[in-house]
Amino acid sequence: MAMITDKDGKGCGRIEQKTKTVIYVDTKKIKHGKDNVWLSITGNASAVAAAREIIQTKLHSED
């Protein structure tokens, strides 16, 4: 997967080449290791839904 980064270094993302789905993490407000982050997922509807499900499953498995 390709990586993308903001010019100001305040965010990063991944591009899945096959579906062109982008998951972008906004790191502008992170000051401590446990701060909340905003994720932005763009792409076609089914790819976005699949990415959301994978992320939610991963987050809940770490609780």
UniProtKB/TrEMBL annotation:
One of its GO terms (molecular function) is RNA binding. Keywords: RNA-binding. It comes from the Eukaryota. InterPro entries: KH_dom_type_1_sf (IPR036612). This is K Homology domain-containing protein. It comes from Oikopleura dioica (Tunicate).
